[in-house]
Amino acid sequence: MFESITGLIEQGGYFGILALMFLENLFPPIPSEVIMPLAGFLAARGELNLFGVVVAGTLGSFLGALPWYYAGARLGEERMRRLAARHGRWLTLSGDDVLEAGVWFRAHGRKAVFFGRLVPAIRTLISVPAGIAQMPFASFAFYTLAGSAIWTFVLTLAGYLLHAEYDRVADYLDPGSNIVLGTIVAIYLYRLLRNGRRAGERQR
Description:
The chain is an all-alpha fold. The protein has helices at 2-26, 32-44, 50-87, 95-108, 111-116, 127-132, 137-161, 166-203. Helix 1 packs across helix 2, helix 1 (2-26) crosses helix 3 (50-87) and helix 2 packs across helix 7 (137-161).
């Protein structure tokens, strides 16, 4: 698994990193906690530029936040909650998730967007209430880019600094990554079934 993911990043280069980070914000096939450290490994090996890796990861993360921001802005909280309750299970997003993110955003204001990008559990969701609240796009873009850049840089640097232990880490990460990805799939399926049951109960 370790080699397959690094091979995917190697083949795609900076655009591959951007695309993976974009998808990670919509539907996480591979989490950023795996993507960026492995990209950092490749930068340490001289196959990619460290600055380019961070820029590509940050831009991909930012672009992935935009659909959620515009969805919130166009639909509003009530319609977004209804949409999430009906179809959000495919993205493991529920109406309650939208409500909780909105409460968090209203409690912390614009800084919620910045700090939210540093918290795995709400990295994606925080864009929804920002759109619902009609947060000016310039402010949203600034705080999203700033938070995403820090998150991306820290993960990339971790992989870069571990380069000296590349072979040892690869031995541990290869089976470990299988466990991580398996766990992610299991959680996704659990939330898919849970949200599906909730939607069914509401329709009764």
